[in-house]
Amino acid sequence: MTENEILIKSKKRVQQHGEVFTPKKVVDAMVTLPGLDETIKLATTTVLEPAAGEGVFLTNILARRLELLALQFQDDIIRFENYALLAISTLYGIELLEDNVKRCSINLYLTFHEFYTKFAAEQNSLPKEGVLESAKTMASVNIVQGDFLKRTARDGSPIVFSEWAPLRITKQTKHIRVLRTEYTLDEIYKQVTKKAGSIFVPPIEVKQLALFENRVDEELKPKRNKYVVAKITDVYKQEMEEIDT
Questions:
Q1: Mind listing the pLDDT tens digit for each residue in 1-23?
Q2: Are residues 100 and 54 in contact, defined by beta-carbon separation less than 8 angstroms?
Q3: Does some domain include residue 210?
Q4: Diameter of the chain measured on Cα atoms
């Protein structure tokens, strides 16, 4: 345990939720295990932390990924920016407590921001707003409040994750394009195949109409949208298009 490292916020939280944070030295030892370290550092490897806490595991992994990318693209800031965003896009977390969810998202973003700012300065450049906003969007969307065991969010609805699927990456790819698709945790478990770009829509609650109540059928069919292909540096715009239902 490092100096000033807090592992327990309060006895009440331990009693109610079993909340005890993992020491950073233990996290470092775990993520660097032979066979795991090589895979977990790849930007394309998807990682889900089912009890994310404040993100000590996820930020550790992101920092390692960014260090590797900085070596790979030390003279190419454009490729670094694109692959750094890919590195954060494949990190996911579920956390039960709301304050931890917020802190986890913030810690992920700050890890990205600090490393990117330093790397850009070394390239005699400045951080791009679109890159930072896209990192912030993914750090927020990818960390979900809910119960992993029940597979439900705080309000009892399904836990929903966004896949940021890259399109046709090759060794020469400089500008990465992605297509966002939403899946519930249940769909992920069941390996459900969905149309790329699909947005999760909760089932419509059907209510019995009064005898003389008049309702147009179209009101029961909300407009459906889907995400469109976007540059990974533009995902913060969350662009969609309307589709026929």
A1: 455 565 555 555 444 444 445 56
A2: yes
A3: no
A4: 71
